[in-house]
């Protein structure tokens, strides 16, 4: 277009109209009269923007990954520092040697699963009259603890946080009748839901009624949306009994939990979920079967034994 007086006037008019539309749009908010036009433009130009963003996403993702990695490293470093302080607080005398072993085992479990955990001590158990299996731990909102965080120890799944105070929190244990967690079978990936039964084994309902399950199979947590209340890959327990299939839509099995809920002391709250599902890597190594000893009996004939084909005569 040639730079004429008419073209300059047209440019000024278009700029004025643009500013007027912007003003009307801002004042209109969600009820803006130009909202329909904006949606139509999005429908037309959206695919083009998407294709352009796809081309630059790798760069953006790389930058984001570096930034997130730095933040994650700082958070993990802070957690390591706090857990080291807990370890120092426990001391090193004989009375606390068992607790230090529990803490070391839990930190090893968290490292294998890439869980960022906040170590804590159990300071109380649920009231007996409440008929619930709960514990109170000595960390709370001031320590970054929130409701519906996963709680574990060196053996596996302990429970989930249900109530948070400034310096303490209540944990509903996995064997409580009101507790339910999604599970995944090792290797076969069969999904199900585990429920607590007090001092009896966990009851698991597999979604596949024809699932091939046997005694000794192991389960881990399946994980929840946004990792709350459960992060994936935490060891749950070992199958101790399988009900006959019977053609039902689901299959029931009973699982002995890894955690001993009557002997809890040092636990960890998962305050930072793993970047990817650890799958079965956190499960303990399977015990090697003990070989059955074999006994070989060798018969040596005596000097007076009759030779084949001969009959020994009486003297």
Taken in chain order, the helices and strands follow as: HHHEEEEEEEEEEEE
Give the proportion of residues in helices: 25-40%
Record field, number of beta strands: 12
Through-space gap between termini:
141 Å
Cα gyration radius (Å):
33 Å
Strand order of the largest sheet: 1-2-5-4-3-12
Average pLDDT for all residues = 78
Proportion of beta-strand residues: 15-25%
* Uncertain parts: 38-70
**Main β-sheet: number of strands, strand sense, barrel status?**
6 strands, antiparallel, barrel
Q: Quickly give the structural class.
A: alpha+beta
**What's the helix count?**
3
Gross morphology = extended
3D structure, described in words:
The protein has helices at residues 5-28, 35-90, 94-113; strands spanning 116-125, 134-137, 150-152, 157-164, 169-173, 180-185, 191-197, 200-206, 218-221, 235-242, 251-257, 266-272. It has 315 residues and is an alpha+beta fold. The strands form two sheets. It has a six-stranded antiparallel beta barrel. Strands 6-7-8-11-10-9 form a six-stranded antiparallel barrel. A hairpin with an 8-residue loop joins strand 1 (116-125) and strand 2. The protein is extended, with a radius of gyration of 33 Å. It starts with a helix and ends in a 43-residue tail after the last strand.
């Amino acid at each position: 277009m040639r730079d004429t007086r008419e073209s300059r006037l047209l440019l000024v008019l278009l700029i004025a109209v643009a500013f007027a539309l912007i003003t009307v749009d801002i004042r209109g908010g969600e009820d803006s009269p130009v909202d329909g036009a904006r949606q139509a433009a999005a429908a037309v130009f959206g695919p083009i923007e998407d294709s352009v963003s796809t081309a630059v996403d790798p760069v953006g993702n790389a930058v984001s990954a570096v930034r997130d990695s730095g933040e994650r490293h700082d958070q993990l470093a802070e957690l390591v520092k706090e857990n080291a302080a807990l370890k120092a607080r426990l001391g090193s005398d004989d009375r606390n040697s068992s607790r230090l072993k529990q803490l070391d085992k839990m930190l090893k479990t968290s490292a294998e699963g890439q869980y960022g955990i906040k170590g804590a001590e159990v300071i109380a158990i649920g009231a007996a009259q409440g008929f619930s299996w709960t514990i109170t731990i000595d960390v709370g909102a001031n320590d970054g603890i929130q409701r519906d965080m996963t709680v574990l120890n060196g053996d596996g799944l302990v429970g989930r946080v249900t109530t948070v105070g400034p310096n303490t929190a209540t944990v509903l244990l996995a064997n409580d009748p009101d507790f339910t967690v999604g599970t995944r079978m090792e290797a076969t990936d069969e999904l199900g839901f585990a429920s607590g039964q007090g001092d009896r084994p966990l009851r698991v309902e597999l979604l596949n009624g024809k699932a091939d399950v046997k005694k000794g199979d192991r389960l881990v947590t399946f994980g929840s949306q946004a990792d709350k209340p459960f992060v994936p890959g935490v060891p749950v327990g070992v199958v101790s009994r399988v009900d006959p299939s019977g053609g039902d839509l689901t299959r029931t099995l009973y699982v002995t939990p890894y955690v001993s809920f009557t002997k809890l002391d040092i636990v960890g709250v998962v305050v930072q979920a793993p970047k990817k599902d650890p799958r079965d890597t956190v499960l303990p190594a399977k015990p090697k079967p003990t070989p059955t000893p074999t006994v070989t009996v060798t018969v040596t004939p005596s000097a007076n034994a009759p030779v084949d084909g001969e009959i020994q005569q009486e003297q």
